[in-house]
Amino acid sequence: MCDINPLNVLDLLITEYSRSYTFGSEITDAEKELKRQLHSFIESCLRCSDTEFTEDEQLIFSSEADEHVLNKADFDCELEEEDCLERSRSGSESSQPVSSGSSEYLPTPPLAKPLEFVEFKYKQKAVEYWRSGAAGKPRPMKFVAAQFKRLKNDGKTIYRWAQQVDEMGSRIDKLVQIYNETLQRFQAAKKKRYIVHDADLKRWAVQANASIKLADFVASGTFLRKFKKVNRIVSRKVTKFISRLYINDKKNLADAAREFVTGLEMEALELPDPFDICNGVRGVEAVVQSPFGTTHSYTIMPIITADGRVVKPLFICMQEVNGEFGPIVKERMKEVLSSEVHVVASKSGKMSKDLFLDEWYSQCLLPNVGTNSIVLLDSFPVHKDTDSMKSITPEEYENLKIRVIPPGTTGMI
């Protein structure tokens, strides 16, 4: 069990918020919902020995479907620098003087083609083939160039490649190795749902270079920006808190989802109409950076059959200060709204137990589904009270079956 005393946590929270709030106000539905979520999270922390707490931001792939392959464009600056160094060594950039007293100018020599980005493994194979001649002598260059099309038959490139292979790669080759090893560490961390920051990428790059030995490499800000751009890594706000327990329970959740579906399929075989299966789905609640950035809240709970039809009416719960519409709004609603929607109000705009039983279940669901149907509900606390639903269900619906989807498995069904 974690070294956490929930009472100490509450005491710290009271101390923090007592500067701005006081006790005594009426408890709202929104406060009840927040209490439920906090209680669930604290319980998961108490059951788990190594709960992780997320921070404000983390690094993620901007598109998990895209897998980028390093190419020449990613190292244009490095290639240009290496190209200049290579030309300075060979003297290819020397220019002939032009007499200032003559009106005739010598033609400008053609610009040399920039170096091509060639993978280190390709260079290794070419050098190994070149060195594997008879009696330990190098193979003739024309045969090597014919076998490796990206090798220039100029008598210089193969020696430069051989030197790079002996040094375990050129500067660019070593950068690629650092990129790849850092990326592998990042991918492994994201699979385990760890939070990754810029400092982690820098640390992994420096650790990778300990064996690669690229001179003067310090994982600078420029390296970090290019690494994130090349691999499409961006910063995102954390919008959900989870404990390690949730990750460890993922397999159990998948098993529970499969068992639920198997049992449901058996029950569906007994239905006269295979599509007499209805699903009540609550509206998705989004997390915003500031509650004051939103002006209203509402809940939509449609009834959807197994074949994808939306059963009318559509249930909508709006947020009103006093929990009900004013007289003018009520009159206007009678004129505008049709029988295809069923609109109610609450102080929070969220579903309460009374609204669920008296409005959605009694007035939206029962009159519009068959008496021999299966109703699927997610594990929202209000939906779990099947005894209350049965107590208000008419006798003709005695064959109606209500099934609550196991917690945490709605997205797997």
Structure, described:
There is one protein chain. With 413 residues, this protein is α/β, with parallel strands linked by helices. It has three domains: 6-53 and 241-246, no CATH class; 58-89 and 114-238, no CATH class; 257-286 and 294-412, Nucleotidyltransferase, domain 5. The protein has 14 helices and eight strands. It has helices at residues 6-17, 29-47, 76-90, 120-130, 141-147, 157-166, 171-191, 198-212, 221-230, 244-248, 250-268, 327-336, 353-365, 386-391, and strands at 57-61, 233-237, 277-280, 298-305, 310-319, 341-346, 374-377, 401-404. A six-stranded mixed sheet has the order 6-5-4-3-7-8, covered by helices on one side. The longest helix is centred in the middle third of the chain and has 21 residues, at 171-191. It is elongated and about 100 Å long. It starts with 5 loop residues before the first helix and ends in a 9-residue tail after the last strand. Residues 91-104 have a biased composition (Low complexity). It comes from Hypsibius exemplaris (Freshwater tardigrade). This is DDE-1 domain-containing protein. Residues 86-107 are annotated as: Disordered.
